[in-house]
């Protein structure tokens, strides 16, 4: 009787038991097989046209600037006056030095006369040798003071002439760095003079590209104002140190065939091509950042598990990243949704290049 009652109870409890869940299928992910592809190192920069030879000119003495005779863009000749300082202080110094020279000449004349008298008296034994020696020493000292005074007078005269700033070469004024009324120091730049003959383009390259540049590398220069013109050029100079503010290196590209379509101060694009090389190119979404390092997710061919792997990115481009190390050709990496992945997760790889298949049953 009891066994007959327990049988329906067991059936009821079995009907209430939770069925076992089916295993979750692996998540599908888009992958791409790593392959080597040829790529030419082509870098484009923007710079401004400069003269091959240019210099900042300044006064050799300090003073108050009272006149500027040229403006930006003016053509100047060698020896032409560019600016002038207040000459009063320099003129006073020159007159003071001239007066000191006249006084030194008078002292020397007196010392010479006294020495001549001492010689005649010594010939008659009216004075001792020590007195003659004293007159001789006084004459030599007066001669030295006269030489010093003459040198000071010449220096003061030169400084009086330094109140006028003259061009030291034929060229074009490309910059004015001081205005009348300003008190300038000795050597402070007043105007920049450029020789309009040889021209070059000044560009600035970031640190990650400077290793691929070399002096003598071929370049193409295209002025913005005449985009249909292309000038051949070559890298002439690469700065040995980066700019402290921008952390870029100044690079000068010589343009031997520059003409009026490439004027001084114009903006131009510079394209520098390097040697072609084989690189591993991956889409930008395939590369993520973890702990400050570039990482890609690699799918194990046997188990289908994914693991993050640090890589070295040689260059970033608009739609892809050029990977130098970290993965090898033939490996498969995830190229979409990498921020949702978990290390060790089993996935179902779907080749990004495969045709789309529709699930008709659903």
Chain-wise SSE layout:
Elements: H1 2-16, E1 27-33, E2 36-51, E3 54-58, E4 63-68, E5 75-76, E6 81-85, H2 88-123, H3 129-161, E7 164-166, E8 171-176, E9 183-184, E10 189-194, E11 199-206, H4 207-210, E12 218-223, E13 231-238, E14 248-255, E15 267-283, E16 288-290, E17 293-299, E18 306-310, E19 312-316, E20 320-325, E21 332-334, E22 347-351
Parallel strand pairs: 1-22
Antiparallel strand pairs: 1-21, 2-11, 2-15, 3-10, 4-6, 4-9, 5-8, 6-7, 8-10, 11-14, 12-13, 12-15, 13-14, 15-20, 16-17, 17-18, 17-21, 19-20
Give me some keywords for this one.
conserved putative lor/sdh protein from methanococcus maripaludis s2 fold, alpha+beta, six-stranded antiparallel barrel, elongated, six-stranded mixed beta sheet, Elongation Factor Tu (Ef-tu), domain 3, disordered C terminus, 4 helices, OB fold (Dihydrolipoamide Acetyltransferase, E2P), 362 residues, 22 strands
Commentary on this structure:
This protein is of the alpha+beta class and 362 residues long. It folds into 4 domains: 27-38 and 278-351, conserved putative lor/sdh protein from methanococcus maripaludis s2 fold; 43-52 and 198-276, Elongation Factor Tu (Ef-tu), domain 3 (Beta Barrel), CATH 2.40.30; 62-85 and 163-193, OB fold (Dihydrolipoamide Acetyltransferase, E2P) (Beta Barrel); 88-161, Helix Hairpins. It contains 4 helices and 22 strands. It has helices at residues 2-16, 88-123, 129-161, 207-210; strands spanning 27-33, 36-51, 54-58, 63-68, 75-76, 81-85, 164-166, 171-176, 183-184, 189-194, 199-206, 218-223, 231-238, 248-255, 267-283, 288-290, 293-299, 306-310, 312-316, 320-325, 332-334, 347-351. It is elongated and about 140 Å long. The two termini are 52 Å apart. The model is unreliable at 358-362 (pLDDT under 50).
């Amino acid at each position: 009787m009891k066994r007959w009652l327990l049988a329906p109870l067991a059936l009821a409890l079995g009907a209430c038991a939770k069925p076992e869940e089916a295993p979750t299928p692996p998540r599908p992910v888009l992958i791409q097989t790593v392959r080597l592809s040829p790529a030419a190192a082509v870098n484009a920069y923007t710079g401004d046209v400069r003269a091959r030879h240019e210099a900042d000119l300044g006064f050799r003495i300090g003073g108050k600037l009272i006149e500027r005779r040229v403006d930006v863009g003016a053509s100047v000749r060698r020896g032409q006056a560019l600016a002038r300082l207040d000459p009063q202080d320099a003129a006073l110094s020159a007159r003071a030095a001239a007066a000191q020279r006249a006084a030194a000449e008078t002292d020397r004349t007196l010392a010479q006369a006294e020495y001549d008298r001492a010689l005649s008296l010594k010939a008659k034994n009216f004075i001792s040798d020590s007195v003659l020696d004293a007159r001789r020493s006084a004459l030599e000292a007066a001669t030295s003071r006269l030489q010093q005074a003459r040198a000071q007078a010449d220096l003061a005269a030169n400084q009086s002439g330094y109140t006028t700033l003259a061009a030291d070469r034929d060229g074009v004024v490309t910059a004015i760095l001081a205005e009348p009324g300003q008190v300038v120091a000795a050597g402070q730049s007043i105007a920049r003079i450029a020789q309009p003959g040889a021209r070059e383009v000044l560009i600035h390259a970031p640190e990650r590209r400077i290793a691929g540049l070399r002096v003598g590398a071929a370049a193409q220069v295209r002025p913005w104002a005449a985009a249909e013109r292309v000038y051949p050029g070559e890298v002439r100079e690469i700065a040995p140190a980066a700019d402290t503010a921008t952390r870029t290196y100044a690079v000068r590209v010589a343009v031997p065939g520059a003409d009026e379509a490439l004027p001084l101060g114009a903006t131009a694009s510079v394209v520098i091509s390097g040697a072609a090389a084989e690189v591993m190119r991956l889409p930008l979404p395939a590369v993520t950042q973890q702990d400050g390092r570039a990482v890609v997710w690699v799918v194990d061919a046997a188990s289908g598990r994914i693991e993050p792997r640090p890589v070295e990115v040689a260059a970033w481009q608009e739609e892809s990243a050029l990977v130098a190390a970290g993965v090898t050709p033939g490996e498969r990496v995830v190229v979409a949704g990498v921020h949702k992945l978990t290390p060790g997760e089993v996935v179902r790889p779907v080749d990004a290049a495969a045709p789309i298949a529709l699930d008709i049953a659903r």
